[in-house]
């Protein structure tokens, strides 16, 4: 007979469609990262329904399905924190499991962190293991916990995208861009965890873990905010938004791109405006990402400047780059969904700017493109001032 928890778990798994769709590169990358950081050859995302354990993404072996009663993770499914076992043969919960006895596998070292939905429903685990006894340090344990949270965030993002896809065509384009934008904090999280795992200095590792936690929190807040936005029918919230703080978070999420390309971002003081903090973060993230990707000269990263100028009824925010710019006859077209500027310089420009215009219009503002003093593009946005 199904318990209340089993029914809630079944419903959550059904909503995520995690058993009926491919794992995808996001989940596969998180599994690989878990194994790498924790120094083990095998890792897996296990989803546990009423009767079975489903291995939906794995590294080190081919994923499969087993009976729930045979699952090691089922024994600790409701445990609120990561579980670490040096040798499963010495643990009463696991010593009789066919994954330990050799009937299915010969697991010795085992560690897992629960996958809990925002409603607190445990649907499975992110699990790592080895055929030799092992240990897990505090840094690696925290990394495993953070990565398990990100597995759920990826599933939430997919669910959000499907919700948006069920609405009108405009929201479908918006969902596509949101799926892309949420990769920036996820990429930042992965980068900071890799830095922490490779650092031999405790202080540097702790700082990297703190930045990873910040990226994870931003991704969670963005998902929650976008869910609220979709449930409100696409209406923008109205509250005071400190653009300086949003810019700092955005630059942290784009840190890998900035470092990899040798780019530089200079910004003057930014104002407090009235708007939706989640949407305005997406706005700045798109504008900065475009400028970083399309600015710069041969052999040199982009030089991007962010500024603000007071107007009678609000603020004009500008993001200038030093790239080839956008020809005047293309400046309206690039705001149309899926349109792009010059094919040699502006791959991906259109969808991002289309989303930007949608966000700006939801705030009662305006957006356009001029020539930047550096010769590149200057994308400007007019937003209402804080009340």
UniProtKB/TrEMBL annotation:
Catalytic activity of the protein: ATP + protein L-histidine = ADP + protein N-phospho-L-histidine
Which keywords does the record carry? Kinase, Phosphoprotein, Transferase, Two-component regulatory system
**What InterPro entries does the record point to?**
BphY/WalK/GraS-like, GAF, GAF-like_dom_sf, HATPase_C_sf, HATPase_dom, His_kinase_dom, HisK_dim/P_dom, HisK_dim/P_sf
Query: What SUPFAM superfamilies is this protein classified in?
Result: ATPase domain of HSP90 chaperone/DNA topoisomerase II/histidine kinase, GAF domain-like, Homodimeric domain of signal transducing histidine kinase
- E.C. no: 2.7.13.3
Kindly list the GO CC terms recorded for this protein. Answer: plasma membrane
Tell me which Gene3D superfamilies the record gives: 1.10.287.130, 3.30.450.40, Histidine kinase-like ATPase, C-terminal domain
Residue ranges of every copy of the Histidine kinase domain listed in the record: 177-387
**Some GO term, biological process aspect, for this entry: which one?**
osmosensory signaling via phosphorelay pathway
Q: What is its main location?
A: membrane
Mind telling me what this protein is named?
Answer: Sensor-like histidine kinase SenX3
> Which organism does this record belong to?
Agrococcus sediminis
């Amino acid at each position: 007979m199904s318990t209340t928890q089993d029914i809630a778990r079944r419903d959550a798994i059904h909503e995520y469609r995690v058993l009926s769709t491919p794992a995808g590169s996001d989940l596969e990358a998180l599994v690989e990262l878990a194994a790498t950081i924790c120094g083990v050859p095998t890792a897996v995302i296990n989803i546990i329904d009423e009767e079975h354990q489903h291995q939906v993404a794995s590294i080190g072996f081919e994923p499969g399905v087993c009976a729930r009663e045979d699952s090691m993770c089922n024994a600790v499914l409701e445990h609120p924190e990561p579980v670490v076992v040096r040798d499963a043969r010495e643990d009463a919960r696991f010593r009789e499991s066919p994954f330990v006895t050799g009937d299915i596998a010969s697991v010795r070292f085992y560690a897992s962190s629960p996958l809990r939905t925002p409603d607190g429903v445990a649907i499975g685990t992110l699990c790592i293991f080895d055929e030799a006894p092992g240990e897990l340090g505090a840094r690696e344990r925290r990394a495993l916990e953070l990565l398990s949270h990100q597995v759920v965030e990826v599933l939430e993002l997919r669910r959000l995208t499907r919700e948006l896809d069920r609405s009108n065509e405009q929201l479908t384009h918006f969902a596509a861009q949101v799926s892309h934008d949420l990769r920036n904090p996820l990429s930042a999280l992965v980068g900071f965890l890799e830095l922490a795992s490779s650092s031999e200095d405790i202080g540097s590792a702790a700082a990297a873990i703190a930045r990873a936690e910040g990226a994870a929190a931003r991704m969670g807040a963005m998902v929650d905010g976008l869910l609220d936005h979709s449930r409100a029918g696409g209406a923008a919230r109205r509250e005071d938004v400190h653009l300086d703080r949003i810019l700092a978070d955005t630059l942290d999420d784009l840190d890998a791109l900035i470092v990899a390309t040798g780019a530089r971002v200079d910004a003057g003081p930014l104002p407090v405006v009235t708007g939706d903090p989640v949407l305005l973060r997406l706005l700045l993230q798109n504008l900065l990402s475009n400028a970083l990707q399309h600015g710069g000269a041969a052999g040199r990263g982009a030089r991007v400047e962010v500024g603000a100028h007071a107007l009678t009824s609000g603020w004009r925010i500008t993001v200038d780059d030093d790239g080839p710019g956008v020809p005047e006859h293309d400046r309206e077209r690039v705001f149309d969904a899926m349109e792009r500027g010059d094919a040699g310089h502006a791959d991906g420009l259109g969808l991002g700017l289309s989303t930007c215009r949608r966000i700006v219009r939801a705030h009662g503002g305006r957006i356009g493109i001029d020539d930047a003093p550096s010769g590149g593009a200057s994308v400007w946005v007019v937003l209402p001032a804080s009340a």
